[in-house]
Specification:
- The protein has seven helices and seven strands, in the order βαβααββαββαβαα.
- With about 200 residues, it is of the alpha/beta class.
- The protein has one domain: Maf protein, CATH 3.90.950.10.
- Strands 1, 2, 3, 4, 5, 6 and 7 form a seven-stranded mixed β-sheet that branches.
- The longest helix is centred in the first third of the chain and has 16 residues.
Length: about 200
Amino acid sequence: MQIVLASQSPSRRKILNSAGVEPLIHPADVDEDALLHSLNGSAPEEIVRQLALAKAQVVAPSYPGDVVIGGDSMLLIDATLQGKPHTREATIERWKQQRGNKATLITGHAIIFGDEVIVESSSTNIHFAEASDVDIERYADSGEPLECAGAFTLEALGGWFIDSIEGDPSSVIGLSLPVVRRALYRLGFNASDFWNM
């Protein structure tokens, strides 16, 4: 038995690796734009939970004897939910909006084992630094934030521009170890059952 990560996120994989788990990586093929459109008007937490669930549900049938984890993160700032910026220009625009402000990073988790499905979200408050225009442009030029929810990373270059967080650091990086641990316990497993030791 193993953990299957329904994600191509290197950050989610690194979180599990640093916690002693070498997951099988099986990225989910989900039309996120269509799903987001269908969820229009839903609460932010529900949106990220449903995105995570869709990813896990696509992958789970291929691994009936394994624990499948789907995840998704989005940044809630000024009552607007933001995903990945994808472009340099969008990254710069977002950083000019979020610098010096507080936002909430919401990470949805879906953990599936057989017929059992556990869906939960985790929210962490982020206090962004007053980053300079030059640093914002250079950060965007690095390419690092283009495919990250909220246009930032906590564990790499983006860490320079985060003053503080309130909540679970692993959730900000992309996968809450406390949420996954609680789900494993509910499924009758120990976290250590999946350690590669």
